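hey so i finally got around to running both of the ones u sent me last week. sorry it took forever, my laptop kept dying halfway thru and i had to restart like 3 times lol. anyway pasting them below in the order u listed, first the sequence line then the structure token line for each. didnt double check formatting much so if smth looks off just lmk and ill redo it

first one:
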Amino acid sequence: MKRYLDWLDQGKRDLEKAKLDLKYKYYEWACFTSQQAAEKVVKSLGMKLGLDMWGHSLLEMLKILEKEKLLEIHEKIFELAKMLDKYYIPTRYPNSFPSGKPSDYYTEKEAEEAINAASNIIRFCEGYIYK
């Protein structure tokens, strides 16, 4: 069964949700959902290549893909992954900060950057998925 296509489609759908979050000024959710979109598509690529991908760190999964499948991953993709990995937990939990809630800390600029980062990672993965 080719479940990697389900993961790919859901990741792309999550990216569309991140854009809605940006539009309606849910910046913390745009950042988190962008991370989730990229995570699902990286896992999709892993599945396509026969790897069982677990966890939530984009950086770690990309390192595994590069090592195990000899993919050439440009440093820019790793940098984008590092940025998105920082949005996995603190975007959702008030105790990530000394006071306030996540929505007090995230900006429109960060949300836009997260969406762009996820878009770039998704395009990179699709280049291998559709080969």
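and the second one:
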Amino acid sequence: MRPALPGAAICRTFVVVIDEGDEIVTVLGKFADEHDIGAASLSGIGALSRVNLGFWRPATKDYLITEICEQVELLSFSGNIAWLSTERRIHAHVVVGKADGTAQGGHLIEGSVYPTAEIVITELPAKMRRILDEKTGLSLLHTE
């Protein structure tokens, strides 16, 4: 177990409304850069016209990608913003709902918004950094 974040006050909260046709991870990354957000928690809802989900495979140390090319509801969007070397990284997991009532989820690789997505960014006072873990091949979260 890694140490928890200190119990300091939350810095800033933003609501980012993402427009039709925009790629959700790209928009959030640009927003974080423009507002100098180094550590944050993400949550949201919306809808997507296409999404790529990843499922981590420990044996091969890569993601199995599932592409969904149909209109889906973004039922749950949860993630964070942290530093990886000298870049901010968006790390999010999502659950999407299909017209037939089924749901699929996983690591968000990319997603095209249609018609909108509403993401809440809650800045955190601690510094969060991702460090490559040789055993898993993943960049795991560490707090400072």
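quick thing i noticed on the 2nd:
The CA atoms of residues 34 and 75 lie 27 Å apart.
anyway thats it, ttyl
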